[in-house]
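hey so u asked for the seq, here:
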Amino acid sequence: MPHRFHIFSIIFSCAFLLPETGFSNKKLTENYISAYKDIAIAEMKRTGIPASIKLAQGILESDLGRSPLALEANNHFGIKCGGDWNGEVFLQHDDDTDSSGTIIESCFRSYISAAESYIAHSDFLSNPSKQSRYGFLFALGSTDYVGWANGLKFSGYASDPSYPSKLIKIIESNKLYLYDEPGDSKIFVNNNNTTKSETETNQKTKSSEPQIVKADQNSRQKVEKQHKESTSKVPSSPVKSSYVSGRINDLAVVFASGNESVKDIARRTGNDIFDILEYNEGLQSQDYVPNFKEIVFLEKKKKNINSDGPQEHIVTDGENMYSISQTYGIRLESLLAKNNLSTDALPYPGEKISLIHHLSKKDTPRHKFVEKFDSFVDLGGLQ
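ran it, structure tokens below
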């Protein structure tokens, strides 16, 4: 996730979202929407991210453009620097800690303009290197703001459990869904050996999944009608074209359709169920349904990456050791051993993970501990 909200921001956001509090920001909200709706619509047409979602995130995370990060750095979405950022930066305390657990200043990207921030937000979500986290969102379509709101939470973009309901509340209170337009979804698939971008004609498959937060049917009647019409055309049984296959680290993989269990994938691909569970350490059971475009290995991952592959990986927000092992086709136990980490270790964003060499103890990536491995492998959240 790009950042967690400050306590003040959470309190403020809740205040303006709940009419019964008597705290009104109607004019400020209208001004914000008027200022940024055009760039939100333009980015929707470019990348497929609903304009309503982008505006709602901007409103919520920038405190209507009044947060210090928005005012001083034109950063409306709280995107942190990351390992590949070479531009101006803005430092403020957020959720990063040092080795002793003390909160330290976090590095956020600073932009020339708010419009640049809006474009960067699109590029962040559609980056091919993050397709295993956010790729399934782009199959929801640009009118399914409910699916996007839930998907952003389950993909790890935000830690606030009420994040989806807050976005939906903002969208429906201000009728932001009127800015959304149906269009081709854009799926980003990328691995070490294959880079593929495609527009799928059956882009609505994911929309048939149950949604955790339901929208107000009265305020989105037109959108809901369109949604039902499109999903009614989706066949109840999986279609062969829903699969995208490829190779990672010279190993065969499929990118899950989002509506089939591990058992279904094994049957479809002619593989043994328990082999697939062994090859993919984060798959929970034969009845588990992997997310849309989630990487599933059909061959046992290797102990090392190919010699012509990268030697290290820079951790980004929301990644864990399992997701990194899937990205490069390296066995989880091997990746952990190379970096002196245990299964309950979660590396901090910006840390370097060695893909080839065994690190010395002093070079062990900074990390924190979670209760158990499963607690930070956030897979199948939408099922």
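The longest helix spans residues 26-47. The chain has three domains: 7-231, 240-297, 312-376.
lmk if thats what u needed
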